[in-house]
Amino acid sequence: MSVVGPSRCGFFLSRLRFSLLSRITCVTFGGQMSNLLNYIQPRLERKLGSWAHLHKCLQLKLFYESYCIGVMSYDSRSFDLGKIIGVGDKNDNRVQERSILPLLNFFMVIYVNEIEKFSEIDGKYQNTRYIYLKIVIYKLKFGDSEERARNVIQIDIRIKGALLSGRLDPQCYWYDGELLEMAADLASRLLPAFENSKTGLPHPRVNLRDGVPKNSRTDTCLAGAGTLLVEFGVLSRLIGDPVYEMSARRANKVLWNLRNIKTGLFGHIVDVNSGKWLGDVSGVGAGADSFYEYLLKAYILFGDHTDYIMFNETYSLIKQYMRRGRSHCNSGYGDHPLYVNVDMKSGGTHTTWIDSLQAAFAGIQVLAGDIEEAICTHALYYTIWKKYGVLPERFNWQRMSPDVSFYPLRPEFVEATYLLYQATKNPFYLHVGRDILTSLNNLTRVDCGYATIHSVLDMTTEDRMESFFLAETCKYLFLLFDFDNPVNVQSNKWVFSTEGHLIPMAPWLREASNLWDHGPQDNPSKEAIANSSRANCARIDEERTFGLPLKSQYLNQISSSFGVNFQ
Q1: Burial class (CB in 10 A: 0-12, 13-18, 19+), 191
Q2: What is the pTM for the complete model shown?
Q3: If you count Cβ atoms within 10 Å of the first and of the last residue's Cβ in the chain, which end, N or C, has fewer?
Q4: Is 498 annotated as a binding residue?
Q5: Rounded mean pLDDT of 254-276?
Q6: In angstroms, rounded to a whole number, what is the distance separating the alpha carbons of residues 483 and 487?
Q7: Active-site residue, from 45, 97, 245, 393
Q8: From CA 382, how far away is CA 362, in angstroms rounded?
């Protein structure tokens, strides 16, 4: 859906920019962060291993301006729900499955992203969250005049996840439970995807009024079948009905039993009726990434050790079969570590490309406590970003060039940058965030929004701004620089869903053994608590915190390989 066309809002945006820049003031507090290690810093570490307070203020200025331009552009196209349903070519399924999403996604961007931050800048934003909540409650209906099948995973993680996150917001004290009712209604409309399957794996598409269409396709990706547990589990615990969580858990169990008997790896495309793999590529990028992510996050939220066992075994096999390069990130000799796509039957290299969604794997490694590996995974994608200014959708690591060259403003690399900064507090990742923000404004910004890059080779753009740009890319950039944000101050009390929705780590979510004996959680405690799981994270040494996370010689190695200059 196009939201970045001609500048019909230029006058308003110019006034908005002036308002933002005039109301935010920045003061330096002693210059750069001090280096706590007594050694002479190499040039790269002097440049990238420190961060001035003034830089934070300048980045937040730029972010506020950029985000508000995007929000107001989106608003101009999505305020009237009637203009959203049915937008696009009726023969284009890619447009159809997204046409229902923009209004709710736009609202939840504001709602979950703490719009009070904008209220501090400009009074006109004080009531935005309330207004858009009312629009969603009174105008968004599921199944009315529904003619098309919708993508099950996208409806679940985007819309239902947003409704549940809004329901669990501690500041949501003035409404009558409509968000939870809408989430339950939507989930019931997704259940036929499971019930009409011969294996328990969900069909990829479902009509929200009529169920699974006759003669619909039955092939789905690993992530499409296995990335439903968090939202379905939270809903089951909120309303006291296990059917939703059990459906998602059954699908995960079916997938687990379909692993290759020799390697233990998953394929990437499976038939939901026969249970046969139709695609034997095994990787950690598109079509698979969120499956691994949700095995780990389900354990963090619900405390079911089965989820952790499945994740831990899978992660070990991923490192065994997919990892290439030197054995350790910051020591030894050899090529820079890289996770490649392999054949699920043999573990041999299957393709010579990696994709931009794989950048999120560094964030999963952070949550798993494998910080050193996350540092190396992230460094690879940062180098590709520096080479082109953005990330191409697919990059061929053998030919050192893009295989698929567009960039639709994806959030995965930004998310990994944010999580690594939270884990290490290394200012290097603030420099990365500044590079990202600078590239977005210099290369993708247009009069009324931000445009998809059609080709990273010539930086031509498309008249399209995906909803995840506001819902995730901007959110993680904002949180990266907003050091005192409550989400950052109490980061051990929250989990981000795969779509960037906040879910509190509340005690009632982890009481799985006797949950269903107590009935629905009509008024669950909204107080978030720290995960009671025992920490097993491998600590990184102080040099990685106050110097470069990836040692200078290894950063120079990868930059030389890609023809990138970090100096």
Answers
A1: middle
A2: 0.82
A3: C
A4: yes
A5: 97
A6: 9
A7: 393
A8: 11
